[in-house]
Each structure stands twice: as C-alpha cells, then as structure tokens.
Design brief:
The longest helix has 27 residues, at about 110-135. The protein is built from six helices and three strands, in the order H-H-E-H-H-E-E-H-H. The chain has about 160 residues and is mainly α. It has helices at about 5-15, 20-30, 40-45, 50-60, 85-105, 110-135; strands at about 35-40, 65-70, 80.
Length: about 160
C-alpha cells in the first residue's frame, strides 16, 4: 500500500503533468457547486495542511487552473475556485487516473478480494474518523508549570 500513492503520482505526472495531490485538489473542486471551496475546507477534504495546500494552490494559480479570492469580512478567509481551464485539465486527467487505479489495484483482485478490500477500507475509515473526532474533542494540554522549559529551552514563566 505504501508504493501505490507513489505509482499513482508518477503516472499522473507522466500522463497529465500534475502531481497526484494537484489532481486531488482539482478533482475535489470540480465536484463542488460553483467549483469553489473555502481553503480550510479544501485542506480538510484533501487531508492537507493549510500551508501545503496554499503552496500547491499557488502553483495551480500560476497555471490559471485555480483562482483565489478573499472572502469579505473579518479574518483571513479565502476561496479557491476551479477555472474553466482547470476543469478541462481535471476532466482530461480523470480517465487516466481511473485506469491506473484499476490496473494497480482493482483488476488483479477477484470479487471476494474486492469485498474484503471494501470491508478493510470501511474499517480503516471508521478508525480514522473516530480518532479525528476524539482529537477534536480532546481538552487542550495543561499549561506548563512555572520554571519549566519549552522545546527551545526558554523558561515558561
């Protein structure tokens, strides 16, 4: 399973000129109303940090595949919108991606193995979502006691 993402990435770069992560960003946006999502939501849907997503969206923006717009109001909220050129790129890349997933993962399995893979995937998804929910409801760590040091050797008082 560790080699699958690298194989999908290499093939996507070779066939479509996109990294697998860039394809995922474009793909998620292509499925949204108005092909737009707030950056923080897009980060969550692609399992990426805002920093990583911002860097990749910047590259895609330079290629005119995505446009960013600030959301009016307080805070630093930004929307990412898939452009028409971006939509054309993701639509053109999708068949190759589907073919790669079928070739690398699906076609080599019989129906019973596919059913087992579905059950394994569902179990992993449930465990990940449970952990995310638990982490979201966990209390913040206690404050450092006076006189203790942080990871940079500074005193916390």
């Amino acid at each position: 399973m560790i080699s699958l993402p690298a194989a999908l990435d290499a093939r996507m770069q070779r066939e479509a000129g996109l990294t697998f992560f860039e394809y995922m960003v474009l793909s998620v946006l292509s499925e949204q109303p108005a092909r737009t999502l707030q950056m923080s939501t897009l980060a969550a849907r692609t399992a990426a940090s805002l920093s990583r997503l911002s860097h990749v969206v910047g590259r895609l923006e330079k290629r005119a595949l995505i446009a960013r717009t600030r959301i009016p109001g307080p805070g630093r909220r930004t929307n990412a919108t898939l452009t028409e050129a971006g939509y054309e790129v993701v639509v053109a890349a999708a068949p190759g991606h589907v073919a790669a997933v079928r070739e690398y993962l699906i076609d080599g399995l019989d129906p019973q193995e596919l059913a087992t893979l579905r059950r394994i995937g569902a179990a992993v998804d449930t465990a990940v979502k449970r952990e995310q929910a638990d982490a979201g409801s966990a209390p913040p760590p206690p404050p450092k006691a006076a006189g203790t040091h942080d990871t940079h050797g500074r005193t916390a008082d």
